């Protein structure tokens, strides 16, 4: 399955059906066990989150948020890039990074047209001072040389100017001109292309980073939740609230560091002084925002339900106080129950309650049926089924024991090695598939090394989302690569820089905030029980093999 997911001889979703067909025939697990993971709680949580995200998209709430933020940050190229990255990261925390990236593309296009033009060379406006003698000897449109303060500029560095005013200046020294800088037009064109390319790439990278901030926004995060519940019966609490507390600060820091790296390595102004272009871009963003009109009941209702969903997730069982879910005793609802309750309300509440006649709901089933990526749902299910078989068959335990040869390193060294290997492997395979393959293995490795398994599983999960270098690594990368017509190597250098930064931030976060949130300094009781279970199974296996060998010996 891993090879098929990397090379795609079959569609990814079709490959995900192999466990149902092959595992029972190969006597790995039964058909029931192979089918169960396809729609268990984690996948239901994923489907519910997708429906809520589609409700946000259908009412254009995400577009309103994006344009409002861009109006606030302005259109100076430096701040514009930061505004796009922060907006994309924020949206990707709540809706899938693919939809976020696709939504941002036309907005980026419109702004770039205003700032950099449509590809034609245009001179840059700059105010300079021209001596009266130059003004009197030339007409409008003549190209002249600027004399600064009565002295000739150094040879080879003299800017050329086109006179745009032929009236005698009131003051005897200077006049305003339109400057065509002594800069090679090819260089100016290259600067604009670089800014355009990096702006598009920054949007994709911000979407990938934003997906790590919440438990429901990235596939590897959901795989982590599934593996923890399957292996340890949910005893280590990995829920929406503590994951947001742990991962969101690191995501913000990673985006800010990536932005700073782009400024240092790539960012150049496409023109000398762009006040007119910036003003035009600001006007078009404001115009697009005003075209949305006042917030409708449809948008307001979706926004209220969205905020309610996040609050219910965060306070379900926050650990610093008694959560509302604890009042239900042994029937303690999980995150999937919460999101499905909100989904039902989306289908019940009318979008236009004050309109005469029958009003459609906030979201309708034909829209959901058409736009839900059912193939991704199967992909997640197939991955979960493979993880189940990996654990049941003992393969993950065996691989964990083989990796125990890394115990000559400190636990921090083991984490660094696994994180780096995972981060580069995920460039060639689906991040969910990578997480599905590796998480059961590193969980067993943690148990073998007698450290908290989450100490290895969390960095591995986050490293699966560090896919920045190749267009095929994530759907967000692919969208930007196609839309911006990038070359194959355009993502490699910035992708490598951002990969190094995000891995560094992630490792620092795991060893600081992660130790506090998930108590990573101890070998917990639930992991100790799993270790005893492994030893018991190994003993039974050895006794069984010895018993089978007795007749042969006789």
Question: Could you estimate the helical fraction of the residues in percent?
Answer: 55-70%
Order the strands across the largest sheet as they lie in space.
Answer: 1-4-5
Uncertain residue ranges:
118-183, 538-554
Strands, count: 5
Question: What is the element string, with H for helices and E for strands?
Answer: HHHHHHHHHEEEEEHHHHHHHHHHHHHHH
Structural class: mainly alpha
Structure report:
- The protein is mostly helical.
- 63% of the residues lie in helices and 3% in strands.
- The protein contains 24 helices and five strands.
- The strands form two sheets. Strands 1-4-5 form a three-stranded antiparallel beta sheet, with no helix packed on it.
- Strand 2 (147-148) and strand 3 form a beta hairpin.
- It is globular and about 65 Å long.
- The chain starts with a helix and ends with a helix.
- Residues 118-183 and 538-554 have low confidence and may be disordered.
- It is found in: Membrane.
- Belongs to the SLC13A/DASS transporter (TC 2.A.47) family. NADC subfamily.
- The chain crosses the membrane at residues 12-30, 42-63, 79-96, 198-223, 243-267, 296-316, 336-354, 454-484, 496-518.
- It comes from Limulus polyphemus.
- This is Solute carrier family 13 member 5-like isoform X2.
């Amino acid at each position: 399955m891993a090879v098929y997911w990397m090379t795609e001889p079959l569609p990814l979703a079709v490959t995900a059906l192999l466990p149902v067909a092959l595992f029972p025939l190969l006597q790995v697990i039964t058909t029931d066990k192979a089918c169960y993971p396809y729609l268990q709680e984690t996948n239901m949580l994923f489907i519910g989150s997708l429906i809520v995200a589609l409700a946000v998209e259908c009412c254009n709430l995400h577009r309103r948020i994006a344009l409002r933020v861009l109006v606030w940050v302005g259109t100076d190229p430096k701040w514009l890039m930061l505004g796009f990255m922060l907006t994309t990261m924020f949206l990707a925390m709540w809706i899938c990074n693919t939809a976020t990236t696709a939504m941002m593309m036309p907005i980026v296009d419109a702004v770039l047209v205003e700032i950099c033009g449509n590809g034609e060379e245009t001179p840059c406006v700059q105010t300079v001072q021209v001596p009266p003698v130059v003004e009197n000897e030339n007409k409008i449109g003549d190209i002249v040389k600027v004399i600064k303060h009565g002295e000739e500029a150094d040879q080879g560095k003299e800017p050329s100017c086109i006179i745009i005013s032929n009236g005698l200046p009131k003051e005897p020294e200077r006049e305003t001109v339109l400057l065509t800088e002594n800069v090679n037009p090819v260089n100016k064109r290259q600067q604009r292309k670089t800014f355009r390319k990096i702006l598009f790439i920054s949007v994709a990278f911000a979407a990938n980073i934003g997906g790590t901030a919440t438990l429901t926004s990235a596939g590897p995060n959901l795989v982590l939740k599934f593996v923890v519940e399957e292996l340890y019966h949910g005893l280590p609490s990995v829920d929406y609230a503590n994951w947001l507390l742990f991962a969101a600060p690191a995501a913000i820091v990673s985006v800010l560091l990536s932005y700073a790296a782009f400024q240092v390595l790539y960012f150049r102004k496409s023109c000398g002084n762009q006040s007119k272009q910036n003003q035009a871009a600001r006007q078009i963003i404001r115009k697009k925002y005003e075209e949305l009109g006042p917030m409708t009941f449809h948008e307001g209702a979706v926004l209220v339900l969205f905020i309610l969903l996040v609050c219910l997730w965060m306070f379900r069982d926050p650990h610093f106080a008694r959560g509302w879910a604890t009042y239900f005793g042994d029937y303690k609802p999980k995150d999937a129950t919460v999101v499905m309750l909100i989904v039902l309300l989306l289908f019940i509440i009318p979008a236009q309650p004050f309109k005469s006649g029958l009003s459609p709901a906030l979201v309708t089933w034909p829209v959901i049926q058409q736009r839900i990526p059912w193939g991704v749902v199967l992909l997640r299910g197939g991955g979960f089924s493979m993880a189940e078989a990996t654990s049941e068959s003992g393969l993950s335990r065996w691989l964990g024991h083989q990796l125990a040869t890394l115990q000559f390193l400190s636990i921090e060294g083991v984490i660094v090695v696994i994180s780096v290997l995972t981060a580069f492997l995920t460039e060639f395979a689906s991040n969910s598939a990578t997480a599905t393959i590796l998480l059961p293995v590193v969980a067993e490795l943690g148990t073998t090394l007698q450290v908290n398994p989450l100490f290895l599983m969390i960095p591995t999960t986050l490293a699966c989302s560090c896919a920045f270098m190749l267009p095929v690594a994530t759907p967000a990368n692919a969208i930007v690569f196609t839309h911006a017509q990038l070359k194959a190597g355009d993502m490699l250098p910035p992708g490598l820089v951002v990969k190094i930064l995000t891995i560094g931030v992630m490792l620092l976060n795991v060893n600081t905030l992660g130790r506090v949130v998930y108590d990573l300094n101890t070998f917990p009781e639930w992991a100790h029980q799993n270790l005893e279970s492994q030893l018991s199974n190994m003993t039974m296996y050895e006794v069984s093999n010895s018993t089978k060998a007795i007749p042969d010996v006789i």
